[in-house]
Amino acid sequence: MPLATDDFLDIDDVTPAELDALLDRAAAMKAGETEPRLPDATLGMIFEKPSTRTRISFETGMTRLGGHAMFLGPDDLQLGHGEPLRDTARVLGRYVDAVMARLFDHADVETLAEHADCPVINGLTDEAHPCQTLADLLTIREFVGEDATVAWVGDGNNVGQSFVVGAAMAGIDVRVATPDEYGMDPAVFERAAAFGADVEPTTDPESVLDGADVVYTDVWISMGQEDERHEKLAAFDGFQVNADLLAGTDAKVMHCLPAHRGEEITNDVLESDRALAWEQAENRMHAQNALLVELLEDEAGNGS
């Protein structure tokens, strides 16, 4: 059955049952067990932020599904040149079958969804990265199992916030260690609690590692935060995922990439057998393909 939601802006826009079904479909599509198609469908992709994985995974994924993806960068639209975002959304909704947007302000993707007469997918905002969470949960299913414990170590950023909520929906135990001044929005833990999770954040990274199956980290200095570099590096002292931190554990290591080797993670850890970063990157495409099919299959008039 198609998703109850018309848009995918946050991971909890879907229900736990829908999330489970999405991951099932992604796994089946990845294994070649089912080949749903979206012939002639067009995905408009709006990019305020540059990207490697987001652009390539969506563009390649649409090609594999029989559709077409259109890159729309800052110089390809009237955004920033006088046209309100709601007007752009109204026009796009009359041309394309879905919109994927990679933006700074989360309110902007909400405006797109409100005014575009087609599904809108959040490809990343400063608050959330739900497509990455889909890929993360698929990766954990494959390499750890659904009965997993994950330690988030580092910045309480958009990737971490979406992951905490998504993990709660999937029944995965999550522990969070961040510096005081770079923690997650408390509302994230309230959303996770709605799915039965009791996440108590800490400022001690070592305390969250005992029994962890996975240690997940991300960059400390995100795009647009370069002027905070000196301040952040000092605040994150002791949070680097390195051999010393991982000593005595068999935990796998996740990173959504790009990685700043030598900052949040060391080169030897990222290049070790522990690392699942490359599997996460591949699974972006498979998870997003499943999402696109769930959102668009009825409109395309095609089944599996």
TrEMBL record:
Compartment list: Cytoplasm
Domain Aspartate/ornithine carbamoyltransferase Asp/Orn-binding stretches: 147-293
Enzyme Commission identifier(s): 2.1.3.3
GO cellular component: cytoplasm
Catalytic activity: carbamoyl phosphate + L-ornithine = L-citrulline + phosphate + H(+)
InterPro entries for this protein: Asp/Orn_carbamoyltranf_P-bd (IPR006132), Asp/Orn_carbamoylTrfase (IPR006130), Asp/Orn_carbamoylTrfase_sf (IPR036901), Asp_carbamoyltransf_Asp/Orn-bd (IPR006131), Orn/put_carbamltrans (IPR002292), OTCase_ArgI (IPR024904)
Source taxon at top rank: Archaea
Gene Ontology MF term list: amino acid binding; ornithine carbamoyltransferase activity
Aspartate/ornithine carbamoyltransferase carbamoyl-P binding domain: residues covered: 7-142
Keywords carried by this UniProt record: Cytoplasm, Transferase
Gene Ontology biological process terms in this record: citrulline biosynthetic process; L-arginine biosynthetic process via ornithine
Residue numbers binding L-ornithine: N158, D218, S222, M223
Residues involved in carbamoyl phosphate binding: S51, T52, R53, T54, Q78, R102, H129, P130, C131, Q132, C256, L257, R284
HAMAP family listed in its UniProt record: OTCase
Family label: Belongs to the aspartate/ornithine carbamoyltransferase superfamily. OTCase family.
Protein name listed in UniProt: Ornithine carbamoyltransferase
Organism the protein comes from: Halorubrum cibi
